[in-house]
Amino acid sequence: MNTRDLAYFAALVDLKNYTAVAARFSVSQPTITVAVKRLEAEFNATLVQRDHAHNTLTITRPGLLLYQRAQLVLKNLDLAHSEVRRADQSTISFGMPPIIGTLWFPLVAGELFSRGLLKYMKTLEVGSGDLLKELQAGKIDVALLGSVRPLQEPGLDATLLAAHEFRAVVSPKHRLAQRGEIEFSELANENFISMTGKFVHPQALRDYSHFAGFRPRVVYSTPNMPLIKALVATGFGVSLLVGDAITPSDQVSSLALSDPVADRFNMSLVVRKKFLPNEIQREFISVLFGLRHHGQSAH
């Protein structure tokens, strides 16, 4: 079987138009027609029914079943191409969200440097949600990811390294600033400044607010955590941030939360289950495991 035929067929199911599929792959329309006929002969089933009078096509039930399997085959083929292409490369394709890059990666950067590994790193710094997709697609080899619950994803091996608590963050002049610990419901009438949706903080905000019985009034969202802390310091609003992100120089008050919500900023080391690291990548991963010794949440 020609895997290109599967790619043509999958695109036909998506686009429902032979001409559009031919344009996508820069081939002639008869090429797509012949590919579908080859697949129908291979599986001894009608995959596509065409209504020339009304210029429409219908994907049959066997066609839909093949489409589902074809997507898996094509995805695994793309992954294989990506991994084989980089198999003999000495680079380490590594991903981490900016907060991990700022707060925790420096704890192992010195050892990576002393072992001569930093020069091999090709780093992608975006939110954990985007990194998860890049890892599953084989575009990066290893990642440090954040999640509100311990990470469990099909096809991935995730090792929990640390679990850091979320804290409410308010201006030093806020009515609750001196309390030390609060219930999240006490923030029901506040304006919230939130991280954008590609990070784990918005999920934690939704979970704490749901437990407290209110919908947070988010007046501003940004991926820039220093900006969030600066806005909180001016009294523009309050926020929910991982506790380790707050330092005395931020000029904000960090408050523990007494609510029995399970959310934590869980930092996990993640690779694909079938990933075969080379010697350099294995050494790099072993150093990252050292982050397990840098402070679990007291909760």
TrEMBL record:
GO terms for molecular function: DNA binding; DNA-binding transcription factor activity. InterPro entries: HTH-type_LysR_regulators, LysR_HTH_N, LysR_subst-bd, WH-like_DNA-bd_sf, WH_DNA-bd_sf. Gene3D superfamilies: 3.40.190.290, Winged helix-like DNA-binding domain superfamily/Winged helix DNA-binding domain. Keywords: DNA-binding, Transcription, Transcription regulation. The keyword Plastid does not apply. Residues 1-58 form the HTH lysR-type domain. Belongs to the LysR transcriptional regulatory family. This is LysR family transcriptional regulator. It comes from Levilactobacillus suantsaii.
